Amino acid sequence: MANADSADVVIVGTGVVGCTIALEALAAGCSVLMLEAGPRVERWQIVENFRNLPPSLKAHWDAAYPPKPWAPHLETYSEASAGDYLQLEGPDARAYQQGYVRYAGGATWHWAGICWRLTPDDMRLKSLYGVGRDWAFDYNTLEPYYTRAEYAMGVCGPSDPALQWPPIRSKPYPMGPTPFGPGEQRFTDAAARIGLRNLPSAQARNSGISYHDRPPCCGNNNCFPVCPIGAKYDAATTLPKIESMGGVIMPNAVVYRVETGSKNAVQAVHFYDQDKVSHRVTGKLFVIACNGIETPKILLLSKDQQNPNGVANSSDQVGRNMMDQPKIIAKITMAEPMWTGVGPVQSSSIMDTSQGAFRSEHSGALIRMENAARSGQAGVAALKKGLVGKALDTEIRRLAACTGQVTIEHEPLPSAINRLTLSDKKDWLGLNKPNIYYDVGDYVRRSADQYSVPIVKRLIAELGATESEIGTEFAHSDHIMGGCIMGNDPSASVVDADCRAHDHANLFLPGGAAMTTGGSGNSTLTMVALAMKASDAIISQLKAG
Ligand SMILES: Cc1cc2nc3c(=O)[nH]c(=O)nc-3n(C[C@H](O)[C@H](O)[C@H](O)COP(=O)(O)OP(=O)(O)OC[C@H]3O[C@@H](n4cnc5c(N)ncnc54)[C@H](O)[C@@H]3O)c2cc1C
Ligand code: SF4
């Protein structure tokens, strides 16, 4: 049994990655202690926060999660506070304004729930196209873990292999797909007319049935900032289960140091509570699952005599290779209602555009029609026009029904120059804030110039949009990857094929930080598959004594 000071497995972070490992380890009979920087809140509190937001903030999902002084996170809606926590520099600094909250349950509170797998080719960029890196293993090795991840989170998706991405699966999805809303159907038809397939997304929400005590999705489109009924998977739904299995969860516990001892094994982690009092926790195995930004930050904060560059950093790769899928946004207006906003916030994407021999020259891309309701943006835009009364009402209705957004997400390459370091600026606890240098790179820029944007222009024409505006700046996709890159060579990577630190036999760094390449699709399912694989290694290592 874990207590507040010690456990077989000490897990830092209660996001989907930490919770996946906690459930697997508890099921195998290991004791588990979870340390979480943020507060523990109930679903209704987030829903109330959202309801009480001023209209100008209703379209900003993260405004419903006010940060605590001891666990700051980036507030993307506020230019001032965004730059205040996450320090950004480089030619595409603004394109790394990542969104994540430091609350128990982590960022899946407010995710869209889309669960694409990588394809076999996404994992072999170096050998197939001469760019990036190859993974330490191939798709066939990861496939069973993808399946376990899909069943653990309750992922719905099509049963017809012609509609699956990629159609290489050992088991069907636990549930069928959600139906397309009218806007997505219109986009699908337009895409088909120019030879592109808009596929139903695999997504972690209950389509038509209850699954894991979660109710069926009722399509009310509130997935950002929170699913009010819990039909969409979020890690917060698993916290009571972790406790019922004997796991101990400590909120408001900000880990700031990993302590190493004999043979460079980790022997403790240190955390501050919300009164800035320091505590020390021991364990047999340690997992840092704080996402691709906070995990490398903790390692860099933990310099000691044995590890002068920081824990797990003999390769000097901790904090390097920061990735996300750089996004280009196209706004469109139609003459007649298109009605995005019926059903979940995203339900489909064009994926074929992410693959091809062109990847030796430029990146592939995912293209989708967003299905998030437009009413928030429509209200703000109509108010900015100075309208009042009936004219205001009519304009809000027109903009909400007739406008839409097409999004392109480009595949990134791991690059050592895209680097997280410790800023000289300190947070409320006196801990260095993360600083990130970010350049999307020519591989991505060439894709936008020569490939992805021209395809989207054809799509917009085929849709019959009366107005369109294609963004020229890259934006963040909120898929934080890299930072503790996986590989077989300890001199060029941070973790091995099980997400175990090359430098410390009892330290695991699973999740987005370990990803070797990112592909074009949303990446959390891959993070959870890696967590499943790491769990197996953790359990066998503990059993072996
Ligand atoms: C608006 C939005 C939509 C998204 N939609 C999708 C989607 O559709 N599909 C997809 O694949 N991905 C999506 N994502 C990304 C997805 O949410 C993340 O990839 C995923 O939640 C990461 O899980 P994690 O467990 O690695 O990290 P997190 O969820 O960030 O959890 C890390 C936890 O660690 C805690 N922590 C941090 N620092 C410390 C510390 N020092 N000490 C103790 N605890 C600490 C944090 O408080 C947090 O609870 C979206 C993200 C956003 C912002
Ligand atoms: S559409 Fe509504 S019920 Fe379905 S996942 Fe989103 S918020 Fe939850």
Outline of the structure:
The protein is of the alpha/beta class. Helices cover 26% and strands 16% of the residues. It has a single domain, classed as FAD/NAD(P)-binding domain, CATH 3.50.50.
Written overview of the protein:
With 545 residues, the protein is α/β, with parallel strands linked by helices. The chain has one domain: FAD/NAD(P)-binding domain (3-Layer(bba) Sandwich). Helix content is 26%, strand content 16%. It is built from twelve helices and 16 strands. Strands 1, 2, 5, 6, 7, 8 and 16 form a seven-stranded mixed beta sheet that branches. A four-stranded antiparallel beta sheet has the order 11-12-9-15. The protein is globular and about 70 Å long. The relative contact order is 0.19. Bound molecules: flavin-adenine dinucleotide and iron/sulfur cluster. Iron/sulfur cluster binds next to loops. The site of iron/sulfur cluster (SF4) has 13 residues, from loops.
